[in-house]
C-alpha cells in the first residue's frame, strides 16, 4: 500500500493537524515508511511464541478482588474547597 499526497492531506485533516501543502510529500513519505515497517512485522513467524507482558518472564502480582468502601473519604475530601457531611459541596445551579 502506498500513501499519496492527497491521502496524507486527508489523514492530517482527520487528525486535525494543519500541514502546509509543501510539507505533504514529506508526510506521505513518513506514512509510507511506517507502513513498510508494519508490513515487515507481518512477515515475522510468531508460531509457538507465547504472548508476553514484559521483556522479562514474571508473573503479574495479584490480589483478592474484595469490594470495600475504600476508607478514603477523609483523604479524598481533604482537598475539596467545600465539603459538608462527608460530601463535596457545590453551588446550586438549578432553581
Automatic annotation (TrEMBL):
Heterotrimer of A, B and C subunits. Keywords: ATP-binding, Ligase, Nucleotide-binding, Protein biosynthesis, Transferase. It catalyses: L-glutamyl-tRNA(Gln) + L-glutamine + ATP + H2O = L-glutaminyl-tRNA(Gln) + L-glutamate + ADP + phosphate + H(+); L-aspartyl-tRNA(Asn) + L-glutamine + ATP + H2O = L-asparaginyl-tRNA(Asn) + L-glutamate + ADP + phosphate + 2 H(+). Its EC number is 6.3.5.-. This is Aspartyl/glutamyl-tRNA(Asn/Gln) amidotransferase subunit C. GO terms for biological process: glutaminyl-tRNAGln biosynthesis via transamidation; regulation of translational fidelity; translation. Pfam families: GatC. It comes from Meridianimarinicoccus roseus. Allows the formation of correctly charged Asn-tRNA(Asn) or Gln-tRNA(Gln) through the transamidation of misacylated Asp-tRNA(Asn) or Glu-tRNA(Gln) in organisms which lack either or both of asparaginyl-tRNA or glutaminyl-tRNA synthetases. The reaction takes place in the presence of glutamine and ATP through an activated phospho-Asp-tRNA(Asn) or phospho-Glu-tRNA(Gln). Belongs to the GatC family. The gene is gatC. HAMAP family: GatC. One of its GO terms (molecular function) is transferase activity.
Amino acid at each position: 500500500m502506498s500513501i499519496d499526497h492527497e491521502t496524507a492531506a486527508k489523514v492530517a485533516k482527520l487528525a486535525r493537524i494543519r500541514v502546509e501543502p509543501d510539507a505533504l510529500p514529506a508526510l506521505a513519505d513518513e506514512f509510507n515508511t511506517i507502513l513498510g515497517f508494519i508490513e515487515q512485522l507481518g512477515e515475522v513467524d510468531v508460531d509457538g511464541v507465547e504472548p508476553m507482558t514484559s521483556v522479562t518472564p514474571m508473573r503479574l502480582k495479584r490480589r483478592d478482588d474484595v469490594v470495600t468502601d475504600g476508607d478514603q473519604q477523609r483523604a479524598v475530601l481533604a482537598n475539596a474547597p467545600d465539603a459538608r457531611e462527608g460530601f463535596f459541596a457545590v453551588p446550586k445551579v438549578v432553581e
